[in-house]
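Data availability excerpt. The first of two example chains:
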Amino acid sequence: MPRVIGEIFGGLILGPTVFGYLFPGTENWVFSAYPSEGQLLFLISEFGLLLLMFVSGVEIHGTFSKEDKRTATAFLLGATILPFLIGLGISRVYNFSSYAGPNSNPVSLSLIIGIAVAVTSIPVISKIFIDLKIMNTRYARIVLAIATVEDSILYAGLAIATGIAGASVPSTYSIATVIALTAVFLLTGLLIVPRALRWFSASRGRILLELSHSRFAIFLLFLFVAAAALLNVNIVFGAFLAGIAIGTVPRDTFAKATESIKKISLALFTPAYFAIVGLELDLIHQFDIVIFLGFLLLSSGLKIAGALGVGKLMRKSWLSSANLAIGLNARGGPGIVLATVAFSAGLISEPFFVALVLIAIVTSLVTGYWLRYTLSRGLPLLDEDKSLRRNGPADS
């Protein structure tokens, strides 16, 4: 299983679902009696979230492949853009107001629902690919290429949704302002800053980088986060763009620094973030089986159907299309980040938050088990992938 599931489960045991249900007075005393300790946990959690998004941004660089561009583009349209647009449409037809948060409005809620339908997890599927020893296959490159573009688009959408939160009926001007600021911030992070970093790393000023690559990387992370906060763009998006910018610099420049940051993050701060997500889950009082099953079937059905439809149009086998569809349906970390950011911003209710977190866990488990089963049967992940024979994943 992905480690994130164990981390969430640890928080689940300590939270209102288990510990709080069995010993409510003790659980309240441990986590609510001392506000300063609660603030410390929140600070650790927020830092873990920022480091997670930073590391994710660093790792997605270089996953594109020119020969796979046509396949990746087609599946991006069918398994991401189309489900996102359908999710937006369904949110306008079906009344989700009972699952809206106190700061929600029709536009922000529609964006959250569209993103929740279309989101894919880069960290979780990357970990699954590494565990199954298929990271260097064409299948893995295509899935990661799609997820890279997808996450960039969807995190921009999340920044817009949180930017217009609070207004019952946001004006056209406020929506346009948020979109414009997010677009400028996105283009700056994807185009201007990476070029400036590459120029800086090749100039005489690189001596400042060489003093401490880790400090410079963390400084750039906080610089992006501060800029996002000033522009009223979600800081999670800022951390993600900071990682992408660092990832564009020649790999040997920041390789050791980013690896050290990743180890520290995955050892302490990111597990704390996911544990606190579990701590916030109240499955006893806030689990709504209707929204959980309904949204699980809706989101997975749209994403898988879109991928299968594209695969059919491209004349791929059903197995290849199904492998791509299920790989892209793993929601993992980004699905949980979406849920926590939307819930903390007051855009969704607690039952919807619980449902989105559980959906992220279930879809990640299904993806891992499906790929492991496919490889154990000696079946190829793609028609063109000849490296996987009947001996299983060890040959890839």
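And the second chain:
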Amino acid sequence: MARSLKKGPYIDEKLLKKIKKAKKDEVIKTWARDCTITPEMVGFTFGVHNGKEFIPVKVTEEMVGHRLGEFAPTTKFVRHGGKMQRELEAKMAKKEAERLKQSK
């Protein structure tokens, strides 16, 4: 659900202070996943916390208007399957090995 237009985008004040102090090449750690990406943030790398660790997110022009949390997933996909899934993974590994042999 989008934020009301009369309120405007949410931008964390502490994060803006960190951006003003930081250099372009250092990682800025933040827990503000709900902070909207603004044009001032382009070019910086943010360490966005996902609940366990900080995921580095390099902000580009296409990301403006989105939230920081969109680029740092909080859950890890676990493959389902069993016997069929193992067979598929074995085939994929075999094809990969053959491709590597051909490239040498």
